[in-house]
Amino acid sequence: MAVVQFAQFSSIVQPTFWHELSRLKLEVLRLSEETVSLTATYSTGRTIKDRNTGQQVALGCNITVGGEGFSEGYR
Fold this sequence. Notes:
The chain has 75 residues and is of the alpha+beta class. It is built from one helix and five strands, in the order βαββββ. The longest helix has 15 residues, at 15-29.
């Protein structure tokens, strides 16, 4: 098996992220320019078997960020 040196990934921004970011800017941060910590999750790619053809299909890696990614101090 070959060693993977780079694997492209897709980013997924959940609607809860935008909702929480809007709330923070309107109610907490206002015009502040301070940095805000954000945590995202990374999931590795995997392969699944296609039921119709029996072939292996590769699914890519993902980085996902949601509203729960903001630090506890801002909730």
